[in-house]
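Hello forum,

I keep getting stuck at the same step: I have a sequence, I want structure tokens, and every attempt I make locally crashes halfway through. Rather than fight my setup again tonight, could one of you with a working pipeline run this one for me? It's a single chain of 122 residues.
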Amino acid sequence: MNVSALKSKIHRAVVTKVDLNYVGSISIDENLMELSGLFEFEKVDVLNITNGNRIQTYVIKAERNSGTIGINGAAAHLINKNDLVIIVSYCQINKDEVTLLRPKIIHVDRLNSPIFLDKQPA
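Reply #2:
Ran it on my machine without issues. Output:
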């Protein structure tokens, strides 16, 4: 049997821009994508720490080392510029291998620069 498990997490990122008229997605600094193991077009959950809203969308690359976290499309009604968010992705893994999984967790500062990588999902 397979279970869904945490694969990647960017913790306490600051939304730097919103674009209601864009067709959808979340734009993420390419460096943060690589550090966290996120792929372009991968489905993610975005958890808004500021107001409690949660959305599902997909990732697109933003300029490397720009610090960009951009909310695009209809999600801009739920997540605002300067909101704090957690971005998470999951993988399907055999239940017998869950204890071997090591999610990639990135903590960022107020400029969305990586502070440290963490092996603990909390």
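The CA atoms of residues 1 and 96 lie 8 Å apart. If your local run keeps crashing, start a new thread with the error log.
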